[in-house]
Design brief:
Blueprint lengths: L17 H40 L5 H17 L1 H15 L1 H21 L3 H4 L2 H31 L5 H29 L2 H6 L4 H18 L5 H9 L8 H5 L2 H21 L1 H9 L5 H29 L2 H22 L5 H19 L2 H6 L7 H17 L2 H10 L4 H20 L10 H6 L9 H11 L1
Helix pairs in contact: 1-2, 1-4, 1-6, 1-7, 1-9, 1-13, 2-6, 2-18, 2-19, 3-4, 3-6, 3-18, 4-6, 4-9, 6-7, 6-18, 7-14, 12-16, 12-18, 12-20, 13-14, 14-16, 15-16, 15-20, 19-20
């Protein structure tokens, strides 16, 4: 057999003028972020408007029971995320990040239109709930692939020493998507009566989300593939990339993704999607006030993401992850308990900012950490599938678990559940290597003196970083 011992030369890379390179990175940031914004707007607007359309599809029973039904449909959408992560992650590794990004936003727009036209129980009986469920499953399929495609694209398209900053815009765009949904909610609350919102007004944001996808499709069609993918595609045939067999060879990293996601996803959905319902249902706050609190808190939260991402480029990823886990375990119970007794804007805002600042240690860098664990040929699938599985098991069920505890009369037990999940992830954060120095391409591996053949440069670099 021929020897592979010789150190390969870095693959040839077309030189671009500095201005062209900056423009390319800005377009990549816009394409990855804006599409992600629309995806997560459509995903989160379901939760934001659930208090209005719950009775349309699930009449009868008390308000908590109706919300549990809509939360159950919300959770079912997460069950499709592993399927979407597998299908679109595989597509991103085999056919390119750009094609997967375009497909995911198309699926999301179709799902949004389905929800917008779903018939209410009064006119179609349970068929309306079936349409709602089908749309949510399509959303789950889409978002399962979008996370990995955008996380991989934003990470690979960023300069090596600014990956934490570049990838942090994934949660900036995710949060801005939620903010856009809340802004639409606030506008409709001001323009329509409660009865109009409950009757038909809740359909407007889903139509709006589908229309936004047209703009995003235009932007994403102009994107270029990342250098890392183009380099790998030239060196490896498509069927050698993005397979489950290949992912099995990196099962340790896949399990690591699931474990480090556990605490972060439970905390994120508790402090964002569930928090508004908690302020309304448990604290007794007016819907308009609770919505405004969530909007302001999330706007500040979005601004924190690039700051924390840039910090990770200087100090590493692990310190931020460890800080998140410790803070979440310590502050969740006292903060959520205090929030249960506030009824005015400023005290609620101040308390909400505490856990959102804590969870920034996870949200700002979790995308880059996961991408840095895998080699290019299985990076999108490696990020997508284990992350989606963890979300299906823990993130998607967080709201339902919270409402179940509330319905059983033990709401405070949920706060301990959130803290416990953070402690599990804390163990992982302490033991895992820091991935900041990972080489994400063959060219970068050669720069580091690591053979860039069929090895795993990302894994090799992260192991070196962990041993420093």
């Amino acid at each position: 057999m021929p020897s592979n011992a010789a150190t390969p030369q870095p693959p040839a890379k077309a030189e671009r003028p500095p201005g062209d390179e900056r423009g390319r990175r800005r377009l990549a940031l816009a394409g990855g972020s804006l599409g992600n914004l629309v995806e997560w707007y459509d995903w989160f607007v379901y939760a934001s408007f659930a208090v209005y359309f719950a009775e349309s599809f699930f009449p009868g029973g008390n308000p908590t029971t109706r919300l549990m039904n809509t939360a159950g449909v919300f959770a079912v959408g997460f069950l499709m995320r592993p399927v979407g992560g597998w299908l679109l992650g595989r597509a991103a590794d085999r056919h390119g990040r750009k094609s997967a990004l375009t497909l995911s936003v198309t699926l999301m727009s179709v799902a949004a239109l389905l929800i917008a036209v779903a018939p209410a129980h009064a006119s179609a009986g349970p068929f309306g709930a079936v349409v709602l469920l089908a749309a949510r499953l399509v959303q789950g399929l889409s978002i399962g692939g979008e996370y990995a495609a955008s996380a991989t694209y934003l990470t690979e398209a960023s300069a090596r020493d600014r990956r934490g900053l570049g990838s942090s815009f994934q949660y900036v765009s995710m949060t801005c998507g939620q903010l856009l949904g809340l802004a639409v909610l606030i506008a409709l609350q001001q323009a329509l009566t409660e009865a109009q919102l409950t009757d038909w007004g809740w359909r407007i944001p889903f139509v709006f989300g589908a229309l936004l996808a047209v703009v995003v499709l235009w932007i994403r069609r102009r994107l270029e593939e990342t250098d890392a993918f183009a380099e790998e595609a030239a060196a490896e045939p498509a069927d050698a990339r993005g397979s489950l067999l290949l992912l099995w060879q990196h099962r340790r990293q896949a399990l690591l993704v699931m474990a480090l996601t556990l605490g972060g996803t439970v905390a994120y959905y508790t402090y964002t999607t569930y928090l508004t319902k908690y302020l309304i249902g448990s604290a007794g706050m007016a819907r308009t006030t609770a919505t405004l609190v969530s909007f302001t808190a999330l706007a500040i939260f979005a601004l924190l993401q690039p700051l924390a991402g840039a910090l990770s480029d200087r100090v590493g990823r692990r310190p931020l992850l460890i800080g998140f886990a410790v803070g979440c375990a310590v502050c969740t119970y006292p903060v959520m308990t205090a929030l249960g007794s506030v009824t005015s804007y400023w005290p609620a805002l101040g308390l909400c900012l505490i856990p959102l600042t804590v969870v920034t240690g996870y949200t700002s860098i979790n995308a880059v950490v996961k991408a840095e664990l895998f080699p290019t040929r299985v990076r999108a699938l490696g990020v997508a599938l284990p992350y989606a599985l963890a979300n299906a098991l823990f993130g998607g069920t967080a709201e339902y678990v919270a409402l179940w505890f509330k319905n059983a009369g033990h709401e405070s037990a949920f706060f301990w559940y959130v803290s416990g999940c953070a402690l599990v992830s804390l163990v992982v954060y302490v033991l895992m290597p820091d991935t900041r120095a990972a080489a994400l391409s063959r060219a970068e591996a050669c720069e580091d003196g690591v053979p860039a053949g069929r090895g795993t440069p990302a894994g090799a670099a992260s192991e070196r970083a962990g041993g420093q």
